[in-house]
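Researcher: Here's the sequence for the chain we discussed earlier.
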Amino acid sequence: MGQEYLEMVQDGVVAAQYIHGWQIGPEDAVLLAPAYTFLMNNRPVDYQFWLGIGSRGWFERLEQPLTHPYVLSRQWPQNTPWTDVEEYETSQETLYRLTLGLLRRCRQKVFLGLCELNEQGNDQKGPLLKAIQRVLRSGPPGLLAEEDLDDARA
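Model: Thanks. This is the structure I predict for it:
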């Protein structure tokens, strides 16, 4: 059974980190975790670093046809197909909730990390990056420091 668990961790099916609710780390520590793992800890921090903001991984749900969380729920109408429209709308809502949850747990500043190319060498222009660019273009003055804005334009 232990071997199966290790294989599931290596395959990315389950998380390798398990933190008991009563184990609180030191205040001056650094936590490296995926966004959802961080949200599950439900602890505010001064600074966050969002890496790979151009990746579609911030937006796309893992392909899991046998355990589809929406179609298999009691709320989904029986014999109704799940289409690209539902997938897109659900992904948009999930991205909104994820970023809102992260922002609500940050007291001071979020640092954004962008890699222009993904693992296959293709441009990364995912929905989170596009949304951030829209905010930077239309946001109120003073939303970012001037040097941050110059970096974002480059």
